Amino acid sequence: MTVTYAEAKRLKTDAAAAQGRLFIRQNRRFELGFQHVREIIASGILGEVYDIRLARTSYQRRDDWQTLERFGGGQLRNWGPHLIDHALQFLGAPQRPIKSTWCSLKKIVAAGDAEDYLNVALTGANDCVVHITISGGSALNLPVYYVAGTRGALTCDDATITLRHLDPRRIPRARKPIVKTPRLHTATPEELPWVEKTIPVAPQKPLDFWDELYKALRLGKAFPVTIDEAIEVMRIISLLKRNPVRAYKL
Q1: What is the pLDDT of residue 36?
Q2: Which one, out of 23, 51, 63, 137, has a CA that is 20 to 30 A from the CA of 177?
Q3: Domain boundaries in the chain?
Q4: pTM of the predicted model, to two decimals?
Q5: Which pLDDT score is estimated for 246?
Q6: Which fold has domain 5-16+30-168+192-212+220-249?
Q7: Contact in structure between 59 and 110 (CB atoms under 8 Å)
């Protein structure tokens, strides 16, 4: 949106004063994988989601201007806005404020002085934690999405989603802790009704960026990405940039 949080706030003020329309192109919000993963979470089939991991990894010895700090370079301002926006959507921010942030920034193989690796943790109001990994120095790729809930989990790449969850029609009996020492196992063995499947990425109600922009401009409908959501992304980036490798309470 801008290079700094202060610039983002000024842009919002200027747009309001000019009575114009300001749209933020968070194009990754409209990725089919992101939309489908959100639908699965909303269905409740994974139970209460407590851990989400987002990743964009590659091995790329970049030498362009985006590797230079003086030009606003670095992955925190490159892929960072997209995955931070994903994280905030998963956590319900800014309506539900983020509780804490943590960030590690490193330069691995890029030519410039800006970071080409970052690891971020955002804790939501419900204590769900979203971990973000962006790396230009990773020889093996991580899954684009990993979501863990109390009743199942999923991984997702660009084309497929792998699901493993408990059968919602067969609820396991509640367990109580056993005080006496077990004979053979640390836990009493049990057979759980797992459902496992791999499905293509295909959300039921996909949104297209350009269609939504047209509807906003010509039909007066609300654009899915609000200015306040984009401003919150810039605020989080400013916190992470200011305090890397440290917990920062908001």
Answers
A1: 98
A2: 51
A3: 5-16+30-168+192-212+220-249
A4: 0.93
A5: 46
A6: Dihydrodipicolinate Reductase; domain 2 (3.30.360)
A7: no
